[in-house]
Design goal:
The protein is mainly α and 85 residues long. The protein has one domain. Helix 1 runs antiparallel to helix 2. The longest helix is centred in the last third of the chain and has 23 residues. Keywords: Membrane, Transmembrane, Transmembrane helix. This is DUF3098 domain-containing protein.
Length: 85
């Protein structure tokens, strides 16, 4: 039996490296920008139709930015920060 009951000190570290977190924050910013561009386009009067809700920004650009942001997040998770060139 071990007389020393003190457990060995454990070295704790983050799961991801600094580069991973940087890429993750960039991805979150792109996703947030996409959702911001999707917002709005409504009408103040519910009886009046506003065709601005179907413009290029809300139908094509914003969802594309959100998907690109999700792709950046997947890349950030899979990125190996310890890989040497």
């Amino acid at each position: 039996m071990n007389k020393n009951n003190n457990p060995a000190p454990q070295h704790t570290s983050f799961v991801f490296g600094k580069k991973n977190y940087l890429v993750m924050f960039i991805g979150l910013a792109v996703i947030a920008l996409g959702f911001i561009l999707m917002a709005g386009g409504g009408s103040d009067d519910p009886n009046e139709f506003n065709p601005a809700i179907y413009n290029f920004q809300r139908i094509r650009l914003a969802p594309t930015l959100v998907l690109i942001g999700f792709a950046i997040e997947v890349y950030a998770i899979l990125l190996n920060p310890n890989k040497r060139k």
